[in-house]
Request: fold
Amino acid sequence: MLTDGAAVVTVASVAAHTGAPHHAHYAAAKAGIVNLTKSAARELAPTVRVNCVSPGLTRTVMGEETVAGTAGDPIAKLLAGRMAEPEEIARVIVFLASPAASFVYGATFDVNGGRDLR
Reply:
C-alpha cells in the first residue's frame, strides 16, 4: 500500500527509553514501536522512509494526568522547564514526513524538552 517515496512516522514516548514506574506495559509497548520503526526502515528502504518521534510530557489530557499523578514535579526534570505543546510534536512529525527529511531513515527523534539526553 506504500508507494515509492512514501514516509511513515511512528510515535513512541520518552518512556520507551527511560521506563515508566507503574506503567511497564506502556513503556514496553513504546519500546516496541521504536524497534518496529528500525525493522520497518531496514525492510522498506530505500523506497519508503520510516522514522519515529518520541515525545515527552505534552500538554494533553494524558500529559496533565501524568503530572497530577506523579510525586514531585516532573516538569522540574525538563531542561525546557515546561511541557510541550501538541503543535511542537506535530511539527517534528511533519518534518519527518516531508522531503526535507529525505536522507533520514530509521531514526528516533527525541522531542522531550531535555528529559532524556541520549
